[in-house]
């Protein structure tokens, strides 16, 4: 039942808010009074002057009584006297369903709660029902204290009634979960200490969507650890170098406390998608947290979620290399874990564009013994087929992930008894609609016949072009040794000519020398400095190109020559561009004093020819020759400055 309450007068509201004891004594008569029945608040404004009893039973528009206001503002002694005047006020709820204990807990006034609880015991007031009262969010006072991190308030409430820790709100959040997700380590430790030696249920550490407090600790770990590191880096070193910053407790510390409650189910309990805390750690790359959970229970690595994904699947899905390596090193058989489609972590990684497979294969090629063990695991994983008979190589081809494909197309990482070349080309064709327009069954047959040699496939995969473009070059037979030798001779001849011309130009500068001191006449000109620098770059590039070609002229196999010929070609292209640039600058520095406009036209014409060579179809895709003119101009500008 509920009774009507008058609207609280202004004087009483101000006195309760600011703790004016004399005014409250006058308005409430705190030395006496009875104890009306417990009620919910209904407000009714009155024009009559209120007496002490009416003042005591009055409330604000939101239903807050005098005890609510005193508790919210931390006036402990006045709240105690008011409670002794009318014990029913402790049971009254405002419009939000909050009692005075809720208000005191929300604002961290542990002294108010402590005095009220002690006085209630003296008056033999049964507090169990009062402490367990819930507001409109179905939260007790302990929820409020845990959320806002008031350790002293939590200590009072949980000591008075331990069952409060097992109460959940309408989101199924326990006080322990709220303290963990908000990062209040001291509160977490306090609650765990009280629950350690007792039989507890899921409700004591439950959270929303069937999460647990351990899930919350994982979610807190990465953010807090990073903020602590940045604090040391910026504040500890730059602003407070001689004073060591106090370490902030992280989610890992809270997880260590929560694991004390684990009776075999906390760490393995999944959320609504059956994801365990280790799944969460793998997803957000909480490396230290994952290692702690695995040390606690190694079998956590074998738990699957509702999609059949294990933690190593999740780490591969997110592209977290360090996490995947940690799982594989701690549980060598974790590569055998399959999801609902029969795929291991290698399949999942090949499906994603995060290049996790390429990075794994790269570190597996190292000579350390630990990496050799990982290499064996990856070999087994790369040969596995899923429920549809698809290998990781085919999945990468279907997704069009070229870097993963190039990493997988090595002798130790691919088995063409499981994946034929025509199927591989078809898989890649599915991911490239522009290729499929020109592809036919006959062309794929030619692809298979031409590239059935694995070495040729590996060689072809090094070039950044689409699969069909590589495979359809059956009309271009592999270059013979004679053709490569001819190409080497041609580049060598051009390199020698450029080296000769640029060497001579260095000692015969435009404008000649001064007869008095032997210095160049135009040496102080900006364009002359650019000419000298371009000439030097051209000479050095042509000399290095010639040197490499002489080395290649020794007895080497055809595949070695073809692979190593790219370096002298780049150097030759750079030398050519810089020689043209030096020629243009030489003409400019000579003609500029007499024909300024004509010299500019000559310079622009030569630069246009160099740029045309850089972007022509016969030029290389990338090389120093593409940026050499800009480098020369920038360097000269810096030197001149």
* Shape assignment: elongated
Strand order of the largest sheet: 1-2
Helix segment count? 34
Amount of helix? 55-70%
Distance between the termini: 90 Å
Largest sheet: 2 strands, parallel
- The rounded Rg comes to 40 Å
Which structural class best describes the helix and strand composition? mainly alpha
Kindly state the number of beta strands. 2
Average pLDDT level: 76
Uncertain regions spanning at least 5 consecutive residues: 32-49, 223-247, 425-477, 614-625
- Give the DSSP E fraction (strand runs of 2 or more residues): under 5%
Plain-language structure description:
The structure is a single chain. The chain is mostly helical and 641 residues long. Among the domains are: 1-136, Ankyrin repeat-containing domain (Serine Threonine Protein Phosphatase 5, Tetratricopeptide repeat, Alpha Horseshoe), CATH 1.25.40.20; 481-640. The protein has 34 helices and two strands. It has helices at 10-18, 21-28, 52-57, 66-72, 76-85, 100-106, 110-122, 128-131, 141-147, 151-160, 175-181, 185-195, 213-239, 251-258, 277-284, 287-296, 311-318, 321-330, 345-351, 356-364, 369-382, 392-399, 402-408, 421-430, 433-436, 441-450, 454-460, 467-471, 481-507, 526-552, 558-564, 566-591, 596-614, 628-640, and strands spanning 2-6, 40-44. Helix 19 (345-351) packs parallel to helix 22 (392-399). It is elongated, with a radius of gyration of 40 Å. The relative contact order is 0.03.
């Amino acid at each position: 039942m509920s009774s009507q309450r008058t609207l609280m007068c202004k004087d009483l509201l101000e006195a309760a808010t600011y703790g004016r004891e004399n005014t409250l004594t006058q308005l409430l008569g705190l030395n006496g009074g009875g104890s009306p029945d417990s009620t919910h608040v209904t407000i009714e404004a009155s024009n009559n002057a209120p007496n002490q009893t009416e003042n005591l039973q009055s409330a604000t528009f939101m239903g807050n009584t005098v005890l609510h206001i005193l508790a919210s503002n931390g006036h402990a002694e006045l709240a105690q006297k008011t409670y002794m005047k009318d014990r029913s006020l402790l049971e009254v709820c405002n419009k939000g369903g909050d009692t005075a204990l809720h208000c005191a807990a929300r604002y961290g006034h542990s002294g108010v709660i402590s005095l009220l609880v002690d006085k209630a015991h003296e008056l033999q007031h049964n507090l169990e029902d009062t402490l367990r009262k819930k507001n409109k969010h179905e939260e007790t006072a302990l929820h409020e204290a845990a959320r806002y991190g008031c350790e002293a308030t939590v200590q009072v409430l949980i000591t008075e009634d331990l069952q409060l820790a097992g109460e959940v709100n309408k989101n199924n959040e326990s006080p322990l979960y709220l303290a963990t997700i908000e990062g209040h380590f001291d509160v977490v430790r306090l609650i765990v200490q009280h629950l350690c030696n007792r039989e507890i249920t899921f409700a004591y550490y439950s959270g929303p969507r069937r999460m647990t407090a351990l899930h919350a600790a994982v979610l807190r770990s990465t953010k807090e650890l990073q903020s602590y590191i940045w604090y040391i880096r910026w504040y500890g070193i730059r602003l407070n170098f001689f004073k060591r910053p106090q370490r902030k407790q992280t989610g890992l510390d809270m997880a260590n406390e929560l694991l004390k409650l684990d009776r075999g189910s906390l760490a393995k309990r999944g959320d609504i998608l059956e994801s365990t805390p280790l799944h969460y750690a793998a997803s957000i790359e909480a490396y230290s947290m994952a290692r702690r959970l695995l040390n606690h229970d190694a079998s956590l690595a074998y738990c699957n979620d509702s999609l059949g994904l294990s933690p190593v699947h999740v780490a591969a899905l997110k592209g977290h290399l360090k996490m995947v390596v940690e799982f594989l090193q701690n549980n060598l058989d974790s590569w055998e874990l399959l999801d609902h489609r029969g795929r291991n972590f290698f399949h999942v990684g090949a499906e994603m564009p995060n290049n996790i497979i390429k990075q794994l294969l790269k570190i597996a090629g190292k000579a350390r013994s630990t990496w050799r063990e990982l290499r064996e695991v990856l070999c087994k994983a790369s040969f596995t087929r899923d429920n549809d008979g698809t290998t990781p190589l085919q999945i990468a081809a279907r997704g069009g992930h070229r870097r993963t494909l190039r990493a997988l197309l090595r002798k130790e990482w691919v088995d063409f008894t499981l994946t034929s070349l025509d199927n591989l080309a078809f898989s890649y064709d599915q991911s490239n609609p522009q290729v499929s327009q020109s592809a036919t069954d006959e062309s794929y047959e030619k692809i298979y016949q031409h590239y059935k040699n694995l070495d040729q496939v590996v060689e072809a995969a090094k070039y950044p072009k689409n699969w069909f473009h590589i495979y359809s070059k059956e009309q271009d037979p592999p270059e013979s040794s004679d053709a490569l030798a001819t190409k080497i001779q041609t580049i060598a001849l051009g390199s020698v000519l450029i080296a000769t011309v640029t060497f001579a130009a260095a000692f015969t500068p435009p404008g000649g020398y001064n007869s008095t001191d032997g210095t160049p006449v135009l040496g102080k000109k900006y364009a002359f400095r650019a000419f000298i620098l371009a000439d030097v770059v051209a000479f050095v590039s042509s000399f290095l190109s010639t040197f490499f070609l002489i080395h290649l002229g020794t007895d080497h196999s055809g595949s070695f020559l073809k692979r190593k010929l790219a370096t002298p070609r780049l150097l030759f292209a750079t030398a050519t561009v810089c020689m043209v640039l030096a020629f243009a600058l030489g003409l400019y520095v000579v003609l500029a004093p007499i024909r300024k406009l004509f010299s500019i036209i000559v310079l622009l014409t030569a630069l246009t020819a160099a740029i045309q060579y850089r972007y022509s179809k016969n030029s290389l895709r990338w090389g120093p020759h593409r940026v050499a003119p800009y480098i020369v101009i920038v360097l000269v500008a810096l030197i001149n400055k």
